[in-house]
Amino acid sequence: MELIVSDNASTDDTADICATYAARDPRVRYYRQSQNIGLPGNWNFVVTLARGRYFKWASANDYLDPRSLAACVAMLEAAPEAVLAYSRTNLVEEGCYRLYADDLALTSPSPSERLRLLLDRLALNNAVSGVIRLSALRRTGLIRPYPGSDVVLMAELALQGQFLLVPEPLFYRRVEPGAMSSHLSEREVLLLHDPQSKGPAIVAARKYRDLLLATLRVKGVPFLDRCKAFAATARRAFWGRHVLWAEFKEKLLFHLSASLGMSRPPKA
Hints:
Blueprint: E1 3-7, H1 14-24, E2 28-32, H2 38-49, E3 54-55, E4 63-64, H3 68-78, E5 82-93, E6 96-99, H4 111-121, E7 131-133, H5 134-137, H6 150-160, E8 162-174, H7 186-193, H8 204-217, H9 223-239, H10 241-259
Parallel strand pairs: 1-2, 5-8
Antiparallel strand pairs: 3-7, 4-8, 5-6, 5-7
C-alpha cells in the first residue's frame, strides 16, 4: 500500500506537514506542484505515479470507515469483471448523518445498459471516491479540465466493467452549506478546474463530445452494444441541445465583443 500526496502549490503549512509524514513512513510519497495545475490536473497526477493493482482518490472533506478499503478490495478480488467498488454513503451535515439513497450498483453484463443506467441515474458521484482497478482507470481519459467531467470518467469505466456496491455505508461525504464550492461563482468553479481558462465555459459540448468518443474508443465491446451506447449518448446530447446552443451563443458573443474591443459582450 502507498499514499501519494500531490500538493497543488499550496500557500499554507501543507508542505511541512506532508514532508514530516513522508520522512516517518516510506509508503508516503509527497510531491509539490510549482504552480496551480487545477483540480483535474492534480488528481490525474497521482494516477500517473500509482504502482498498485487498485487505486483510490481521497478528498480532504470526506472520510472513510476503517473497514472500507478492505471491503472494496475483497469485492474486486472476487469479481474480475468489475472495475470499481465503493460503499454506500452517509452524507454529513452539521455533525448529523443521513444515508444517501441513490448510490448505484452497475452489474449488468451489457456495457450499453450499464452506461444507460449511469447516465439516467447518477446524481451525487460518490463512486469516483471508490476503489478502482488501476489498469481500467489508465484506459480512460481520466478527469478532464471542466466541471462535470467526472461523469465522463464514470462512463468510460462503466463501459469497461461492473460497479459493485458494498451494502454498508462506510463512506462519509460532507455536504456542509459552508463548503468552499457552495460559495464559488460559475466562473470560479471553471477556474478551479482549468486555471488557464479564458472567456465563457463550453462545458456541455465538451462533455457530450467526450461521452460520444468514449463509446467509440472503448475496447472489447461488441459492435451492436457499442451502437446502443453511442445512441444512448447521442439522445442525451439532443435533449441538451438548448444548453449547447446557449453555450455556443455566449462564446460567440464573447469573441465578437473581444474582436470589436468592447468591454462587455453585446446583448443577444
